[in-house]
């Protein structure tokens, strides 16, 4: 039997409450994204401004976080998003999840608003609210180091779990993120950093001595499954690619398939080799790293040691997504500049994808003469300058801090926003990798590649190869079922809380592996389809939040995705057919009508309590 | 008869009081620096922390500000300095002085501290304290533009007087400055921007319709003198040099004389042509400009339109002093980078000289292995990054924000601080231009070239040529008397408030011209020596402030200035002889003993009320 311990902090009252989530609720929603979304749907009042004190933040680990080995050390943050104005979830790796659990709590709920800047410090079951005025205005890196220092820890981020916001969160940038230890981990998407900012919460720090393994029911069986998973993962070639080059091993691959967007999805970048994982590994990476206890260790830390884009005295955690967003997407293929801009985003505390989307929209609007701004594609110095201005809402930065969606609407050019539900999309063109024509635009958190990751089939051929350009009736049917299945699975992964990399390995069957781990750990009795049903339940809870808010219920394809891709291997392809035909099949598979669950579906998933929302 | 109208704002109480300074006190101290220093000595409690609410700020125009034409539109700010911990004065051109007077007040005294960020708005005799929370954290340029916008002015800095601080002032950087309109004017030296920050005062804005000329007693005579001055100034070649190239016409000249310091006064820069006034005029200057009504119009506005150091969409007001401080002094001769760093300093709101001094000290300490910092001479990217960190007191920036003096002391390397009274010196090496061996180190505000400007003789030969390397007994005697005379004169110039450029023209006799203007304007009856006596009085009042604080009374030469200059035309020269022998003569001329006025001197100057300080 699993018990999930929650600390509820009310910053207005300056009080803490402890709560326990019982086994029966956990079996329905697990932790992380699932439990957070369920509680948010029950607790966060309808129609509330995300930056109002009555919004809440759920920092949740999952039942297996930091206990299982492979990919397990993640933490999900749930709340109402200032970017999408509906529910969002965003998760980070590193060690914040691990140390939060060791401090005695599996989850932290933050309510209300402090009068002055504060941080929450939890040491071995003893929580306190501490002044953070001296940290307000400071970058994420300085704040993290200062928290270690003033709490008596060595200058080593592995020694405690720390989550902080930077100037962007304090200044309520709609796409501000939350940085986690170690190093430069980010719950980036959805702007929950600015919800922290609105609550005057600079950070959360946790440390403790709770022994997580003591709570595992059948240790022998658990460790056997665990070790077997490690063996299977580390013996696979995808492990080697991620371990050696990190996520940016994708840059050359996706470009060669014609699926790498550039210039705000209006063109194709030339030779992207200078910003590819292989080249950056060779010229810039100085250190590799992993989340707590994870053998994949995909984290690449780069350094720009000289030149006009030097990043003095510090390393840069870089990934495929931010290299794309702040590189080809804004027409910049100069690796020094792209890394410098990534570093600026991390230190100022912004989601790199939405920052890139916003900059790309701004450049497009400027080139069209709609926005008065001295900027062009690849104009590195200006892009870096704008990052600073956005984080401080300084001058034109104040407009850009509203994000790509609002910028495009303001300047009456909606097609320059490429996303859904108010959030811009990441580094795959859904006209060249058509699974994303469904996966991006049905994602509950908006413009998202991590609620279902169709390149697993299209690029990695796992568990089988799917042609990314096939939008024949059978191709569409295949993708609709992949997306639904994958969304359900990943909802569970985000609630456990795991990362998604083990799912990339063909010798892994994630739903069955998760079932086995849960059963061994807590004496449960799940099978793979039970796991998928939990995921489906979670996905429906999030959609119910949209229904209740009366926002983003219908899924929509942005207009640019209906135009043919202009050049490259996917030239002439659009996302229209996949989306228009696929969405009908998808709704049928989900038991939804027009993006909305039916009463029967809710009943089937044990969600009848939310009938009133329909 | 002149009446000087003062507005006294108490930010703690949220109240204003109007006061009038009568003719007899004005005849002793004029306005600006003189009146400010006199009131500060009477009103600011001894030993007070400059960042305590009981420190006061005096924003004072002078009786002739904005009425006389040539050089007259300046405003002096006086207060206790967070950098020197004693009295300082700092003045700006532009139009703040003019608009403050037209709003109905010749001076503004700010006392106390607001609870939340505010700005003071004065519209035609009606002052108000207004919320400025929305401006806090914003750069000086954005804040200025926002104040125009929200008060219904067109986006044109000439239309109102605006003085603001940037992030550096808010974050109490010890050398934060105050930016004035139009454009990028700075009361930079002495860190009074952080005194504004400590009072939560983001800015002061003034506009009005008072007609200054109506208060002139003999308009005909006044205008005749005025017009004659304009004719004499504009017919002189120095006018043409300043008008065409601005102050940075000095770069090549001073370098060719061997008097341009580099690498924190440890070496000599190579070819400084790339950062010279002539070259920057040719390649970067896009606009020239003047202070209100001044025909000299020396302001050069540059633009860096492309490349890694592009300054997007904005112009940079650049001068000789900041080009040196952020160029050769930190080993950087790349003009794009030097201009970008100047712009950063202006927007973040820092004194460019002290920023350059501090960066130079930091580089020296880093090279010596005393300070752990990844930086070297000419490392543009890092220097720019540090400017941001200093302004936000972020990480290492928190240490550097304390300034060069405190940094050198902290790392037990006092010789890496090149200044006096806690403030670093500007762009002339007193070993190659030896007048500064006395002028810098006797300056009341510390490390200063504007209390007496000896290059007038040494470089311009006005009124006669003095050999800058001559420290023979007669040379020393000559410089001691020049410095004393010039300090007295410039104390009057800073109290009128004029700039010092007209004094560079050999057909001008500033003390007589000032006497004539005052007599015509207010029916006074001054001659040139009366004017100089006013200046001497003011200079002694400032010195009394040091005596009262028990700080910086004795003048001292920094140890590096006793070492020979390493290369160039002044190779082998040191400042020791000029200082050691000159200071004795100088004290004698002043009627001082060991840097301290005697009772007789005070009596002679009508300052007997301050006898108690001695």
Automatic annotation (TrEMBL), chains A, B:
Q: Which cofactor does it need?
A: tungstopterin; [4Fe-4S] cluster
GO MF assignments: 4 iron, 4 sulfur cluster binding; electron transfer activity; metal ion binding; oxidoreductase activity, acting on the aldehyde or oxo group of donors, iron-sulfur protein as acceptor
Superkingdom is Archaea
Kindly indicate whether the keyword Metal-binding belongs to this entry: yes
Q: Gene3D superfamilies, from UniProt?
A: Aldehyde Ferredoxin Oxidoreductase Protein, subunit A, domain 2, Aldehyde Ferredoxin Oxidoreductase Protein, subunit A, domain 3, Aldehyde ferredoxin oxidoreductase, N-terminal domain
Which keywords, in A-to-Z order, does the entry hold?
Answer: 4Fe-4S, Iron, Iron-sulfur, Metal-binding, Oxidoreductase
Q: Which family does it belong to?
A: Belongs to the AOR/FOR family.
Protein name from the UniProt record: Aldehyde ferredoxin oxidoreductase
Annotated organism of origin: Thermocladium modestius
